[in-house]
Amino acid sequence: HMRMLARCADTCLGPGGLFPLFALVTSGAGTGDAEPQVAALEEELARLERLLNYLPDFSQRQLHLGDIALVPHMEYVLLLAPMFGLEQPLQAYPRIAAWHDWVGRDAAVTQATGEMHVAVRADLKHGMAADLLMMLNPTSTTLQAQWMSIPLSFPLPTCLPSFAPLFPFRSSSVQRQEL
């Protein structure tokens, strides 16, 4: 079960659902015409929902490495999906939402995701994500976003570097495996 969750995160949800969205935001294309990429994310979330329904109830076991492998992917789903119009990305996936709540009750997961949120804040302030949000609203002089329940607001410099060349994701070259 552990390997199935980790494999779903690493070979399906990441390359099939998240990388196409990362490719859009890092290429400077913005979030305007992202219907195929959002559909791909929803397809991968539906795959994970089916997997969680198939596996024994997670609430009846201890947290394992498969859960740990999946946590960062889900945090990025919760970050990226609203940028593309999916305000509540887990709403249609009750099993994933329940798993996310369950795994979030673990102290180590809470600490690690808290550290991840701090890193994302720093990136929002100084890096690629600020560039991304400027693409979404190029006339803005303030970055305003929300990561989980953390409201963020930063004054933006007048010139932000583009980090798109550092992230050359090509979703078409990724092979996904069916579950």
Please provide a written account of the structure.
It is a single chain. By secondary structure, the chain is mainly alpha-helical. 59% of the residues lie in helices and 7% in strands. The chain has 6 helices and 2 strands. Helix 5 (107-126) crosses helix 6 (128-136). The relative contact order is 0.17.
Descriptors for this entry?
single chain; 179 residues; mainly alpha; two-stranded antiparallel ribbon; 2 strands; 7% strand; disordered C terminus
What layout of secondary structure does this protein have?
Layout: H1 2-27, H2 35-54, H3 65-83, H4 94-104, H5 107-126, H6 128-136, E1 142-147, E2 150-155
Antiparallel strand pairs: 1-2
Question: What is this structure, in a nutshell?
Answer:
The chain has six helices and two strands; from the N terminus they run H-H-H-H-H-H-E-E. With about 180 residues, it is mostly helical.
Q: Give the low-pLDDT segments.
A: 134-139, 146-150, 154-179
Order of helices and strands: HHHHHHEE
Main sheet strand line-up: 1-2
DSSP summary: helix tally: 6
Largest sheet report: 2 strands, antiparallel
Which structural class should the secondary elements be placed in? Answer: mainly alpha
Q: Give the termini distance in whole angstroms.
A: 13 Å
Strand content: 5-15%
Tally the beta strands: 2
What does the average pLDDT come to?
74
How much helix is in the residues? 55-70%
Task: Indicate the radius of gyration in whole angstroms.
Answer: 17 Å
Shape: globular
